[in-house]
Specification:
Blueprint: H1 10-23, H2 32-41, H3 48-57, H4 67-92, E1 96-97, E2 100-101, H5 103-107, H6 109-129, H7 133-155, H8 164-189, H9 194-218, H10 233-236, H11 242-248, H12 253-265, H13 271-283, H14 286-307, H15 312-324
Antiparallel strand pairs: 1-2
Helix pairs in contact: 1-4, 2-6, 3-4, 3-8, 4-6, 4-7, 4-8, 7-8, 8-9, 9-14, 11-13, 11-14, 12-13, 14-15
Keywords: Magnesium, Metal-binding, Transferase
Protein name: Polyprenyl synthetase
GO molecular function: metal ion binding; prenyltransferase activity
Length: 327
């Protein structure tokens, strides 16, 4: 695990996973739906969002007393993320997730839909059962934002005149909102002052944008086996992300790239077209300007960290921010 996450111990992650296993327990053994849920529960992802929640809680005076409550919430946050991935795979008709077959390609769309819905019902139940009312309201609004982001992205598919404002609004819902919620929940549950909670929530916003923008840049890298999807899959699915949008804004950019977007909408984009599109995006500065924007969020995040109480976890968050900003 990267150094900036070492503040969250293996023992803490194990507690979070134990609560996930408890909360995700189901009566569907031997069925496709049960297999989807078991696959999700055994996922060995980096647990970034639960780790961020626990790290944010370190700024509160009641962090130790809130231990079990925090681990339950971290488990619920990760379950929310897993449910969103399952539903995303269905909508995207994605064959892969993290380089492995997606749940809907392995078990069918029906099983994936039911499993995702079952997860969301369990999240609601355990939030109420554990009396996590305030954090439950934060998370409910976050799920609403995630839905709005996905709906907004769907409305922008193959849209030649999609704007940066629409893109930022969509990724704020899809990705950023859950990062913000992790920081807000961790701070609130550990007794942070409202000022510190707001700083951490703003930091979560910067981190969310940086994570998503880096992910968009990966669609323009050469080794696509590492991210488990085909080259320029976003573009081919009509999802025009940061490098493309910034290239479009440059002089001559729209004239150069619109023909490729039109052929893409007509599903007649060739492999040669994709290569030329990538070349144009690079030549027009789409990649460079994307990094510049990421570095702008990095600068703001570093300013926020300097305003937080000085402690070890603040330094680890600073390392995380700088890692995300590294080209």
């Amino acid at each position: 695990m990267p150094k900036y996450f070492t503040r969250v111990s293996d023992e803490q992650i194990q507690k979070i996973r134990e609560y996930m296993d408890l909360f995700m327990g189901h009566p569907f053994s031997g069925t496709a739906i049960g297999a989807v849920l078991d696959d999700a529960a055994s996922s060995q992802g980096k647990m970034i969002r639960p780790r961020l929640l626990v790290m944010a809680s370190e700024f509160g005076s009641a962090c130790r007393e809130a231990g079990d409550r925090l681990y339950k919430l971290a488990a619920i946050v990760e379950m929310t993320h897993l449910a969103s991935l399952i539903h995303d795979d269905i909508i995207d008709d994605a064959p892969l997730r993290r380089g492995k077959p997606s749940v809907q390609s392995k078990y069918g769309k029906n099983a994936a839909v039911y499993a995702g819905d079952f997860l969301m019902s369990r999240i609601s139940y355990h939030l109420m059962r554990e009396g996590l009312n305030h954090s439950g309201m934060v998370l409910s609004k976050t799920v609403e934002a995630m839905c709005v982001g996905e709906i907004g992205q769907a409305a922008c598919r193959y849209k030649e005149n999609v704007t940066m404002e629409e893109y930022l609004r969509n990724i704020h819902g899809k990705t950023v909102a859950l990062f913000m919620a992790c920081c807000r929940i961790g701070a609130r549950e550990s007794g942070c002052s409202e000022k510190v909670a707001q700083l951490l929530e703003a930091l979560g916003e910067c981190l969310g944008y940086m994570f998503q923008m880096r992910d968009d840049l990966l669609d323009f890298t050469t080794d696509h086996t590492q991210i488990g999807k085909n080259a320029h899959q976003d573009f081919q699915e009509g999802i025009y992300t940061l490098p493309v949008l910034l290239a479009l804004e440059q002089p001559g950019g729209r004239e150069a790239l619109t023909p490729f977007m039109q052929r893409n909408a007509g599903r007649i984009l060739s492999a040669e077209d994709i290569c030329r599109m990538e070349q144009l995006v690079t030549e027009l500065g789409g990649m460079e300007k994307s990094w510049n924007l990421i570095h702008g969020y990095q600068q703001h995040a570093e300013e926020l960290i300097r305003l937080l109480p000085s402690c070890e976890v603040a330094q680890l968050l600073l390392k995380l921010v700088r890692k995300l900003g590294a080209v």
